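Whether sequence alone determines local backbone shape is best considered at the level of individual chains. The sequence in question and its structure tokens are set out directly beneath this paragraph.

***
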Amino acid sequence: MTSQELRFSLAERTPQGIKSTGDSGESVSIQDEKKVKSILDTIHNTKVEDHHGKTDWILLGYSGPDLKSLKLLGHGSGGLSELRSQPFPEDSVAYALLRVVDKIDDVMTTRFNYITWVGEKVNAVMNARIGVKKTAVTRVIGHYSVETLVSNKSELSDENILGRVQDASGSRSKVKEYKPPSKPQSTSPGGTDSTVFSYVPKGQGDQLRVQDDQAARDVIKSVRHGTGGLNWAMLTYSSPSCLVLSAKGTRGLSEVRSALRDNEPAYVFLSMDQTVDSTTMRRFIYIRWIPDGLPNLKKGKLTPHRGFVEDWLAPYHLNINAVNSEDISDKAVSEKLDVLKG
């Protein structure tokens, strides 16, 4: 695999047909389908050396309140600053895909940030339906490196959007122990040796917490260091606004699959070893488990929690959005990790 082929870490999904059905059976269609598909192909397939001057972002929104059809709101080659200048709807939802160039071990590579915009004036009914439609929309968007949830223009800052790409890139030798910063810090452009940002979607920070926060963080720290053979830990909901560290173990991915429930969302932090050029590397994986069997209304209520959980568990090399055990089979996870080898 060449350095240019290392374009995405597998939270990513390969592009599917432009009409896509979500896990709930609901689907979305695309207005001006050929044009949208062409733009997405350009964003995904432009090589790093051809990045400048080529289309690097697209913005899609719903054509009506029924959320059945997406339309093109804009596209361009001016990067994040141009995307940020677009008229994002305050009372609706929009989806953007942004291609950026990142520097990983002194090699330039293309990365993709999948941005979900939930306007601050979105009503409760629409907010609940976002999660129902999300899988279908994600299949339209195609593969991506990181996903970011935002609700206002201030959250479309370079620090938030580009910084998240750099944080997710990681490297074999520069994965840091997570220490919550007292305030947001800057990231050097193009580097991966960066501080993790504390990002919580506006209005959500006081609605979700982790019970016995420091004790739970200590368990995650033990997973990072392999203390006592510990290699995974799981957060589940003790109430709609509180997470609890409910399980941990030493037997890896198979034990994680046994601990997950078909009717209960969970967030897993997993450590796995990977051999790269005869050297064993420790990889950290974040699994967001939102099972198929979960009621659609409950799925929708979980969407605003994504930013909080991502940052609480950061940093990690790989993000997997799983809806069934096949998404986290040994083979599936191994294939995802292989992309990180470079």
User: Anything to note?
Assistant: The CA atoms of residues 238 and 319 lie 23 Å apart.
